[in-house]
Amino acid sequence: MKKELLYAAILFLSFACSDSKSNEGKGDGRSLIAAGGQSEEELKASLEEFNKQEEKRLAEESSNVTTLEFDKLLHDFGDIKPDTDNNCKFKVTNTGKKPLIISDVKASCGCTTPHKPEKPILPGKSDYIEVGFHPNPGQINEIIKTITVTANIPEITTEIKIRSFVK
Q1: Inter-residue contact 114 to 59 (CB < 8 Å)
Q2: Is there a single domain that holds both residue 138 and residue 101?
Q3: Domain of residue 58, residue span
Q4: Does residue 43 sit in the same domain as residue 74?
Q5: How many domains in the chain?
Q6: Tens digits of per-residue pLDDT, 23-81?
Q7: Spatial contact of 135 and 143, defined as CB atoms under 8 Å apart
Q8: Which stretches within 35-87 are classed as H helix?
Q9: Less packed terminus of the chain by CB within 10 Å, N or C?
Q10: How, if at all, do strands 112-115 and 126-133 pair?
Q11: Tens of pLDDT, residues 92-132
Q12: 59 beta partners
């Protein structure tokens, strides 16, 4: 590993030195290496083009973005027993101006099973994310599970949680 790093450093220095020698009298050779041989004007034009493309991409992405609000971010089941079915619902409301599309809900473990709304939620309307929790035998004490919700919102994902104390 050390030999590979040494060879890479020698190779880099040999190219850097040969490029700076060939550019003697033309300014700092390092800037030409870093710029890939482009002039300052060409770099500015490339940057402007990149910025235009990025603005266009962000505008396209934000054209379908909306906002959401949950009635709660944590559901507490309280004291429960192992090997029992426990269910709850999180009410999600579309607070934006575009349809809310919940594309995925994932739980942090297999004992938690979330179900997302299948249809888009229209602006001002609500639907539910249903969560089932089935603690396995031996799974005792305080348990907190996270459900990650992926949707067409600016943050892309948000988290809701369930909590219980398994006795």
Answers
A1: no
A2: yes
A3: 2-62
A4: no
A5: 2
A6: 444 555 555 556 567 788 888 888 888 887 777 666 555 568 999 999 999 999 999 99
A7: yes
A8: 40-62
A9: N
A10: antiparallel
A11: 999 999 999 999 999 999 999 999 999 999 999 999 999 99
A12: none
Please tell me whether residues 148 and 93 are part of one structural domain.
yes
Count of all residues that appear for the chain in the document: 167
The CATH code of the domain that includes 141 is 2.60.40.10
The CA-atom distances, in angstroms, between 121 and each of 54, 71, 72 are 29, 15, 18
- The pLDDT, as a whole number, for residue 21 is 45
Residues 74 and 36 reside in one and the same domain: no
Which bin fits 27, alpha (ψ -120 to 50), beta or left (φ > 0)?
A: left
Give the amino acid at 123.
Answer: P
How far is Cα 136 from Cα 140, in angstroms, rounded to an integer? 9
Burial degree of 120 (CB within 10 A; 0-12, 13-18, 19+): middle
Instruction: Give pTM, 2 decimals.
Output: 0.63
Rounded Cα distance, 13 and 18, in Å: 8
Task: Pull the structure tokens for residue 45.
Answer: 């034009």
Of the candidates 27, 42, 62, which is a domain's last residue? Answer: 62
